[in-house]
Amino acid sequence: MSRTEGLRANSSKFTLEGEPFHILGGSIHYFRVPRAYWGDRLLKMRACGVNTLTTYVPWNLHEPERGVFNFQDQLDLEAYINLAAELGLWVILRPGPYICAEWDLGGLPSWLLRDRDMKLRTTYSGFTEAVSSYFDKLIPIVKPLLYEEGGPIIAVQVENEYGSYARDVDYMSFVKEALLSRGINELLLTSDNREGLKCGGVEGALKTINLQKISYGVIQYLASMQPDKPLMVMEYWSGWFDVWGEPHHIFHAEDLLDVVEEILKRGVSLNLYMFHGGTSFGFMNGAVDFGTYKPQVGSYDYDAPLSESGDYTRKYYLLRKLFTQYYSDQLPEAPPPQDRSVYQPAVILQHLSLWESLQFTKPYRSVKPVNMENLPVHNGNGQSYGYTLYETTITNGGFLNSWNNVRDRALVFVDRHLVGILDYKTESFALPDGKGARTLALLVENCGRVNYGKALDEQRKGLVGEIFLNNTPLMGFTMYCLDMKPGFINKLTTGQWNSVSQRASFPGFFQASLDVDGPPRDTFIRLPGWGKGVVFINGQNLGRHWSIGPHQYLYLPGPWLQSGHNQIVIFEESRAGEKILFAENATHGKTVDVYKHLFCSLL
Q1: What is the pLDDT of residue 600?
Q2: Is the pLDDT score of 393 beyond 90?
Q3: C-beta of residue 242 within 8 angstroms of C-beta of residue 550
């Protein structure tokens, strides 16, 4: 097909090459799917009848340190988009700079917060200069993939849901011009929920809407805002995300199908968010805070048509039957499900206390505690994720008070004995009395930065202010950056670990071996009897585990295993079992209907 006219929104219907085009979209994030499975997930989506892939671009992964960029391997955006094109998918790119996505800080890099005056998502010079530098690197990668250049990208989104933030009337124009000036000439879009439509758009970009239920004339409302323009639901929420300590959210397949059928009958284009959620591996989960801080889990299953591990669901088959009506040709054959293995339990062989691990990280000293982002580590970019240990000396007991300066959760020790926990609910408690100088230590975990809402600018982590003992601020801190990157985990294995016959010290690291006979296959890790911590496979961070649920598993992709020996290291805060178990399927625990739980309470 000769390329003369890309996606246009000049009438009530989209056109591509001058012909009517109905967008049947689906979201799959390359950064949430092991690269070895990109093709599998995209082909399954194409076989369902989806014609357009949408994906975010996470700035914080692509520029982990200021001026240091990564578009390789798992983050090879160019390869991902080209693969989509090979499989017959068009692409709508959502490059941010802010993406939300239940992703740490909505995809913004934490080093931005080293600037005490930072105003995220505004035209504050410190932010716009960083965005411009990032786009200078990103857009040249994207430009050859545009439709006009022969690529699959037919539209580009300007920022994301800005109407729900709306702190700067000039900001969206800045982002739009940043895209245009670098050669983005395809159709520009914005997306907002109903409440955000009024102030989330920008001149020259088509407005789209995000929703889960059609109610209160919402489609008509969008139509009234831009007459004689095509209508699109940019995010039709196929499910919902989960937070620690609450049930797993589900959205029933029949309810989903009813709404999708209604949207398509009205001639409205849509994008299923998510078609396949995948996993927020490592420490990349976000958090919500609408008065109460709630960190999200690592699983991004989302109750989507393809499960976290890429399995077909009832939603998938219902949607495939519906979407088939929009094609005269037969859809591609759906790939077979992935094979799985239930490996033999891995027995814990050795353990190493947190205190013994400190030899592998450099201490930093300061009169007052320093928040994670401003620690003098990583070439002046600070600490982004994980834990920070703060130590100081006390000479008496009394009342310890954080005054809400702990972000987000601190285990408190006196002479390496756990004496309490400080978090958003517990800001103070009494320390035990003792004689002489003693070491007070706070192991502070960044449980995930808020990814949506007005609290974005307040997402510095660690100790963000002073800690008081008997109303006197503590001074003289030694701090350890424990972001648990692969290099740190690999260093640990060179240490002198303790036999399991010796009593384990908590927090600590526990090591086991998984032997794989034959080609590695997907599996699920289960940790009954364990408390809270992080799981590493061959040095790679799978994510957090926590006995409060909802999910009682971690997805372990086969491509991250190797035939023969595989090393498992678990950082555990409070209690450990003797074994690591494996299962064929995920266990989500208690479930709740997302619409009844989240939305009916708002009506």
Answers
A1: 47
A2: yes
A3: yes
CATH of 368-475, one of 2.60.120.260, 3.50.50.60, 2.40.30.200, 3.40.605.10: 2.60.120.260
- pLDDT of 602 reads 39
Residue of 63, 159, 186, 235 marked catalytic: 235
Mean pLDDT confidence for 4-11: 94
Q: What angle do CA 188, 194, 197 make, to 5 degrees?
A: 40
The CATH code for residues 19-326 is 3.20.20.80
Helix (H, G, I), strand (E, B) or coil at 263: helix
CA angle 178, 182, 188 (to 5 degrees): 65
> Does residue 557 have a cis bond before it (omega within 30 degrees)?
no
Q: How far is the C-alpha of 570 from the C-alpha of 198, rounded, in Å?
A: 48
Q: Are 279 and 555 in contact (CB under 8 A)?
A: yes
pLDDT at 597: 66
User: Do 346-352+486-583 and 19-326 have the same topology in CATH?
Assistant: no
Two structure tokens written together for 224: 């009234």
Name the pTM for this structure: 0.97
Task: Give CA separation, 475 vs 361, 393, 394, 478, in Å.
Answer: 22, 8, 9, 10
- Alpha helix stretches (DSSP H) within 441-587: 486-492
* 3-class SS of residue 199: helix
Other beta carbons less than 10 A from residue 7's beta carbon: 22
Q: Which residues pair with 406 in a beta bridge?
A: 463
Domain spans of the chain? 19-326, 346-352+486-583, 368-475
In CATH, what number does 346-352+486-583 get?
Answer: 2.60.120.260
For residue 394, give the amino acid letter. I
- 86 included as an active-site residue: no
Q: 161, 186, 373, 445: which is the annotated catalytic residue?
A: 161
Q: 244 pLDDT exceeds 50?
A: yes
pLDDT tens readout for residues 526-581: 999 999 999 999 999 999 999 999 999 999 999 999 999 999 999 999 999 999 99
Return the residue matching tokens 């499975």. 37
Q: What is the pLDDT of residues 36-55, one digit of tens each?
A: 999 999 999 999 999 999 99
Name the residue type at position 101: A
Residue 41 in contact with residue 28, Cβ under 8 Å?
yes
Q: Is 161 a catalytic site residue?
A: yes
